[in-house]
Amino acid sequence: MTTQGLLLRSILLLTLLPASSLAEDASKEDDKESQSLQHFTPTLTEEFKELLRNADMEAGAAFFDKKCSTCHDIAEDGINQKGPLLWNVFGRKAGTAEGFEYSEAMKNSGHSWDFATLNYYLTRTDRAVPGRIMNFRGIPEDEIRANLLAYIMKFNTEPPELP
Known about the structure:
The chain is built from eight helices and no strands. It is mostly helical.
C-alpha cells in the first residue's frame, strides 16, 4: 500500500472511531503515567515479603546468570555494559550509576532503588518507567523476582535488611 493510501486509511479509521474510544486511549495514557515510578510509590505485600525471606539464592543466581548478566555486571569491580553496573544498586538514585548513559525517562524518574521499587520495576519495566531504554519487558512471577532481589541485595557494600 502506498503512503498516500495508508494516510487515507488512517483518516478513515479515525473518522469512524467514536470519540469515547479516543478519550479512553487518552485516559489509558494518563493512567500509564500515574503508574510510573515518577508519580507512584510502590509498597511490598506481606506475601512478597515472605517470598523474600524464604528466597532461593541459588535460583536467583541462576536467573541472574541466564537473563541479566548478558547486559549487567554485578561485581564490586565490575563495569557498565549494555546496562549499568548493579553493584550497590540498593539505595542508589535511579539513573545515576557513574559512567552509564541513561534514558531521559530513567534520569528523571526521581526514585531510589529499594525492594519495593525494584520489585515494581522488574514486574513491568514499561509501566514503571515509560520511555526507558532497557529492552526487557519484566518478570511476572513473584517468586522469581523475590529470588532475584534476594540474590542482588548481597552485592552492596552494606546489603539492606530484608523487609
